Amino acid sequence: MTTATMADPPAASFGSETSQYPTHDHRGSWVPNGAMIATRFMELRKRRGLMVALILVNIGVPTVFLTVRLLAHAFAPHSYGPAGGYDIFTSLVAGVMFVFGFIVAATLGCTAGSVDLTEGMFRHLVVTGRSRLALYLARIPAGLAIIVPLVAVGFTIVCAVCVFAAPTQLSYQGVIVPPGLSHTAFETWGADHADEVICNFNYNGPITALVNCGNGPGGGPSTRVAPGGAVPQPTSPAVDRAQAVKIADQDYVDYSGHFLSPSISLMVKAGLWIELYAAIGFLVGLGLASLMGQRTVPVILLIVLEIVLTPLLSRADIPHVVNLQRGLVGLATTHLEPAGLPSVFGGMRGGGGGVGMVTESSTVAICVIVGWIVVWTTLGAWRMVTRDA
Fold first, then answer.
1. Which of 150, 158, 174, 364 is paired with 375 by a 20 to 30 Å CA distance?
2. Pseudo-torsion of CA 121, 127, 133, 135, nearest 10°?
3. DSSP state of 171
């Protein structure tokens, strides 16, 4: 006698909802995983020409400049001043690293946003089933993982040289002045060095003292005159000291912005500031290149924006378009500049923009920066999601 056994039920297709062992396929998730980010990072890092350009601009330029100054001061200290110091630091940060950091970061962003299209890999990425939004978002941490450390290394080199190779004496308007004096102490020092103060310091007012500066005919008394043209007459030491105190009082605000070396607080704030602008440049370049589907034109547009349009539109109010001027991301970032740095587009020290710049509150500046990041990221992601494969 034979017995019949029940056959096993047919297994459902692998990965289906009725499968005995359902699988969890996360390829449709819009959140990029670590493997996607690592792949995008490797794709950018292997572009040797791009990486060389990033290293040369962010690290090479300040390193070569400071190395030349170090060698010049070592071989001819009387002809060339110290390689570091507060003035060198502020010039490099506001004049070089801020502007060119944005440009190279934007170039990296434009490359990341268009590399798959230009190399014909976009179709192959789409057929894997990965979310297009995840493919776009994976480029953000991958690119920032490249540009942020490069800017940090270059900035660290600048800070190290400017601190350890700083001058030991403060030269203010051609006169050796003790650093860090209070307002009262500066006036007292000026009274004790009346001849040097009267002869060299800037002063917007009448000169009532006549001292021997050595710049007159035959090395005689100074010919410096008051704004009205009246020639001062020889005076007593008490009058000279009073004149020097007035001049020192007027120049103290400018003097207080000069230091032998940058402070730790200023270096930290300046580093975060240029990193912020570099990150903005990368995100804008990424979105613009993804929207346009190429790299060259977006790079040119962003260079023109940074080198030409932003400096021109930041210097003066233009009737009826002043709100458009305030919408420039470069101007908004400049208004967040740390106190103690010279304005990127000219003006006095102190941060928050320079004299003659378009006025803007910090709240508006922050809203403009957030708006640029959100808008260009949204446009770039939207174009990648809707683009034909």
1. 150
2. -40
3. E
CA distances from 339 to 90, 159, 268, 327, 353 (A): 11, 17, 12, 22, 10
| 109 and 361 Cβ atoms separated by less than 8 Å | no
Report the distance separating Cα 339 and Cα 270, nearest Å: 9
Q: Are 70 and 161 in contact (CB under 8 A)?
A: yes
Angle ∠(143,64,262) on CA atoms, nearest 5: 80
Terminal Cα distance for the chain, rounded:
64
User: Residue 184, Cβ neighbours under 10 Å: how many?
Assistant: 10
Q: What type of residue sits at position 150?
A: L
Q: Which two tokens stand for residue 375?
A: 């808008």
Q: Is the Cβ–Cβ distance between 93 and 341 less than 8 Å?
A: yes
Q: Specify whether the CB–CB gap between 100 and 57 falls below 8 A.
A: yes
Residue 12's alpha-carbon distances to 5, 25, 26, 163, in angstroms, are 21, 17, 20, 70
Cα angle value 17/19/22 (rounded, 5°): 75
Q: Which residue pairs from 380-384 have beta carbons closer than 8 angstroms and sit at least 24 positions apart in sequence?
A: 380/113, 380/136, 380/286, 380/287, 380/288, 380/289, 380/290, 380/291, 381/133, 381/136, 381/137, 381/287, 381/290, 383/290, 383/291, 383/293, 384/132, 384/133, 384/135, 384/136, 384/290
18 vs 13: CA distance, rounded Å: 8
CA angle 283, 285, 35 (to 5 degrees): 60
Predicted confidence pLDDT, tens digits, the chain (389 residues):
455 554 444 444 434 444 444 445 456 677 788 888 898 899 899 999 999 999 999 999 999 999 999 999 999 988 888 889 998 999 999 989 999 999 999 999 999 988 877 776 766 666 666 788 888 899 999 999 999 999 999 999 999 999 999 988 888 888 889 888 899 999 999 888 888 888 888 888 777 766 666 554 444 445 454 445 555 566 677 888 888 888 999 999 888 888 888 999 999 999 999 999 999 999 999 999 999 988 999 999 999 999 999 988 887 777 788 888 889 999 999 999 998 888 886 644 445 555 567 888 899 999 999 999 999 999 999 988 887 76
Say how far apart CA 191 and CA 51 lie, in whole Å: 56
Residue 262 phi/psi, 5° resolution?
A: -70, 145
